[in-house]
Amino acid sequence: MGMTADNVQWNRDVYSTDLRYKKIKTPEPKNDENDLTIALPSTSTCLYSLIKTQDQLYTKSVLSEINYDNIERDMHRMFMSDVPSTDHGYFASLSPLYKIVEGLRLVRKSQRTADIKFENRLSMETLVPHWRAQAKNTAILSMHSMAFRDIPLTEKSRIFKSLWQNIYRFERIQMSTEIFGENCVSEKKLAISCERAIQLDSLFFDIEGVAQNKLKITLQDYKAFAERCVEEVAKPLSQLKLSIEEVAYLIINFVLHNEEKIIGESFDICDKFRDSIADDLHEYYRKNDIVNYASRITKMMNTIVAMKKIHYDDLGGTFVTNTRNAKEVEVKEEDDDDEDEEIIVD
Q1: CB atoms within 10 A of CB 80
Q2: Which three-class secondary structure state does DSSP give residue 56?
């Protein structure tokens, strides 16, 4: 069910006059927004000793593993809600694509640009709240997709568990190109949250209790992973200079492009939804007198293919291998203080 350029109806007649890009009203934040926060996960005895009393969402970013049982209740509560309402009000009046645009505007409402803070020293204290917030934002954005809302609750949870981190990464890479422009690529600058950014060449981990040699290996592998994201995803996105409508279209298609994660009835729902947002994007181009956009859509979709390939390459790559080995060594050293295990690098 991979989204291709053919899914958008190309080269229809358009108005001959120039139009400004359509501006979408941003709703006021809801008073109950704080109710959507993620509860602090419980501890785990299988991870680094230093994080036994810490929130484990940061561990997901480093180790690509997390026990989602700790936040499943909160996700279920969010996914069972009718927030935002689809029955009445401004949100209900929007087309499928512009519902996603509205969600994107909402989660980016606090995004800093010129005053964003660079935090090249990454510690648990700074990253724990960051990862909690991004998990929440991804869930909120998901609830602005009618396809996601229409699938069964168990499927919502399963798909979210499988894809939320990659959705977040993809969205942050695109946001980085908006904030830093060409410097996102040339200087390897990435916005990791609405408040913080990193510069890859200056990045280092400062995590108490973990041996420096293990942190060094993990950092090297992470940088290799992130540099691929910059070169293969951020670079073409920075050249495209997407509108928010195109960003919303791209992010939702990034989800739909993971067809192996969307099966059965959910597949059919998402397939129909794909066609509806393709029609919405065509209408956006028509109203804004944007012609011959087939090649533009193709370039956009190529970034999805690149991001997905990076993810699957990494599943069997050195970044995950080294961090898993580091984790195993830390646990073993707790059991046997006399042994000095080394990280095995494949």
Answers
A1: 10
A2: coil
Q: 3-class DSSP state for residue 102?
A: helix
pTM: 0.71
Helix (H, G, I), strand (E, B) or coil at 180: helix
**Residue at 19: amino acid letter:** L
Distance separating alpha carbons of residues 313 and 25, to the nearest angstrom? 40
Q: Please, what are the domains in the chain?
A: 57-242+302-335 (1.10.565)
Mean pLDDT, consecutive 10-residue stretches, the chain (346 aa), reads 39 30 36 35 36 35 42 74 80 93 93 94 77 83 90 86 87 96 96 93 85 84 91 97 96 82 80 93 95 93 92 61 50 47 30
Question: Tokens 């990659």 belong to which residue?
Answer: 166
Q: Give SS3 for 338.
A: coil
DSSP secondary structure, 65-82, as one string: ---GGGTHHHHHHHHHS-
| The pLDDT value given to residue 70 | 56
Report the distance separating Cα 117 and Cα 180, nearest Å.
13
Q: Which residue matches tokens 């699938």? A: 151
| 8-state DSSP, 205 | E
Catalogue the long-range contacts made by 285-293 (C-beta closer than 8 Å, 24 or more residues apart): 285/14, 286/12, 286/14, 286/15, 287/15, 287/19, 287/22, 288/19, 288/20, 288/21, 288/22, 289/14, 289/15, 289/16, 289/17, 289/18, 289/19, 290/14, 291/11, 291/14, 292/11, 293/8, 293/10
* Residue at token pair 């046997």: 336
List Cβ neighbours of 303 (8 Å cut-off, separation of 6 or more): 232, 233, 236, 237, 250
- Residue 148 exposure: Cα atoms within 13 Å on the Cβ side: 32
- 84 preceded by cis ω (within 30°)? yes
Cβ-based neighbours of 36, under 8 Å, separated by 6 or more: 78, 83, 136, 139, 140
